[in-house]
């Protein structure tokens, strides 16, 4: 009887909560319930929707905004960019620091010109909201210019763009620290800058899961696109294109005890002034079914490896082709990678490998049409399991054509590569 009473009470409370949820309209031109976003948030109760009319929202009641710990939907409706929170360099857009969870949803809002020590656009501290269909641009911070996640924050970030944000120290687009397992899906990092991790940085035990992200034209001293330190990041179906590091890790880098897994990803024309054009790693790493094309660096245009001797590094079922330098560089006296079941071809400093390598092919991968963004391979390519000794597919993509298009030095030009993903 007691159990039934509790269950019945829970049902009544749920129905009451659902029935009492309302939509609050915010319109800066006076056509809604309130004219500022903060007023809407202050008057909302759990489960409410705050619908914001199109426009550019400025002033103190339209920045440093909080959900006050409640599950709310704050949205600009369909089409990100129609509602803009312009912080005018005087604060950040939103702060989540009241134990918000995934039911606190920010949807379809552009945040621009935010400024803060941490989290110029959005700050998540010990909170895990859902951020989707948002664009965070031209924000500035010391740590996490676009967004900063600390204190175990594990937000869900979906279909968002982080563009032209600048962090003085780390994480031009996003910085995750102090544990937490953020989940990112279909997120784009474009033209962000930082000292570490131009596009994004995770550290301090944070273990992000990133799927379907694009890192395009980000810059940093270390790790132009993505940097991972500590934790166990899981990375799948990523694109790194034209990212730049002035020292190491043009596309991405890892270190300080992280062990990451990278699969089904593409690195195109990333560059480093010194080490690791596509990827530099000093820690445990597993890389499989990836394609590395046209990356460049003085040491290791594809990879620069300097992990502790006892650490495992595995590169398998991947393509390293047309690099501006050697495919791999291993530092003397350090741990070495195992490279196997991969295709290595036409790298400018030769195709010699270092570390423990075996069962690789040094032949043309036969891309279909790299000049048209097509990195699938010809049906006779050695990258297909039916055409190689291992019976395993190699690279990020399968068969896509039935006519021979070689990818040798005379068959594809740098101008063709530069035209990709523009």
Task: Estimate the global geometry from the Cα principal axes.
Answer: elongated
SSE-based structural type? mainly beta
Radius of gyration over all CA atoms, rounded? 24 Å
Strand order of the largest sheet: 1-2-5-8-12-16-20-24-28-32-36-39-42-44
Number of helices: 3
What gap, in angstroms, lies between the N and C termini? 66 Å
**Poorly predicted runs:** 1-19, 407-422
For the record, the count of structural domains works out to 2
Q: Please indicate the percent range of residues in DSSP E strands (runs of 2 or more).
A: 35-45%
Describe the structure.
By secondary structure, the chain is mainly beta. The protein folds into two domains: 55-211; 233-245 and 256-422, no CATH class. 7% of the residues lie in helices and 38% in strands. The chain is built from three helices and 47 strands. The strands form five sheets. The chain has a 14-stranded parallel beta sheet. A twelve-stranded parallel beta sheet has the order 3-6-9-13-17-21-25-29-33-37-40-43, with no helix packed on it. β45 (367-369) and β46 form a beta hairpin. It is elongated and about 70 Å long. Residues 1-19 and 407-422 have low confidence and may be disordered.
């Amino acid at each position: 009887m007691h159990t039934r009473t509790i269950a019945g009470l829970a049902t009544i409370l749920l129905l009451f909560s659902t029935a009492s949820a309302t939509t609050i309209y915010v319109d800066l031109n006076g056509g809604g319930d309130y004219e500022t976003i903060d007023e809407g948030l202050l008057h909302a109760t759990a489960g409410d929707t705050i619908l914001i009319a199109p426009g550019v929202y400025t002033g103190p009641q339209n920045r440093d905004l909080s959900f006050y710990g409640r599950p709310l939907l704050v949205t600009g409706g369909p089409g990100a960019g129609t509602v803009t929170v312009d912080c005018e360099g005087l604060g950040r857009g939103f702060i989540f620091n009241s134990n918000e969870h995934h039911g606190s949803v920010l949807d379809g809002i552009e945040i621009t010109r935010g400024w803060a020590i941490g989290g110029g656009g959005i700050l998540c501290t010990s909170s895990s909201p859902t951020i989707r269909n948002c664009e965070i641009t031209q924000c500035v911070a010391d740590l996490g210019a676009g967004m900063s996640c600390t204190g175990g924050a594990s937000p869900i970030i979906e279909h968002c763009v982080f563009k032209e944000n600048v962090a003085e120290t780390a994480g031009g687009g996003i910085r995750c620290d102090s544990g937490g397992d953020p989940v990112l899906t279909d997120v784009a990092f474009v033209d962000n800058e930082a000292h570490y991790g131009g596009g994004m940085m995770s550290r301090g035990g944070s273990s992000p899961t990133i799927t379907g992200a694009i890192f395009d034209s980000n810059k940093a001293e270390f790790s132009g696109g993505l940097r991972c330190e500590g934790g166990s990041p899981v990375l799948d179906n990523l694109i790194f294109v034209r990212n730049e590091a002035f020292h190491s890790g043009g596309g991405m880098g890892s270190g300080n005890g992280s062990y990451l897994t990278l699969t089904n990803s593409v690195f195109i024309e990333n560059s480093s002034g010194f080490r690791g054009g596509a990827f530099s790693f000093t820690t445990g790493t597993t890389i499989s079914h990836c394609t590395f094309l046209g990356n460049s660096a003085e040491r290791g245009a594809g990879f620069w490896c300097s992990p502790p001797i006892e650490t495992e590094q595995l590169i398998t079922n991947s393509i390293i082709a047309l690099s501006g330098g050697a495919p791999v560089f291993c530092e003397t006296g350090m741990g070495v990678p195992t490279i196997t079941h991969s295709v290595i071809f036409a790298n400018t400093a030769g195709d010699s490998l270092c570390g423990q390598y075996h069962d690789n092919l040094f032949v043309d991968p036969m891309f279909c049409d790299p000049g048209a963004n097509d990195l699938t391979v010809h049906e006779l390519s050695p990258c297909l399991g039916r055409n190689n000794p291992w019976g395993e597919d190699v690279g990020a993509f399968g068969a896509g054509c039935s006519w021979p298009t070689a990818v040798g030095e005379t068959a594809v030009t740098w101008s063709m590569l530069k035209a990709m993903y523009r």
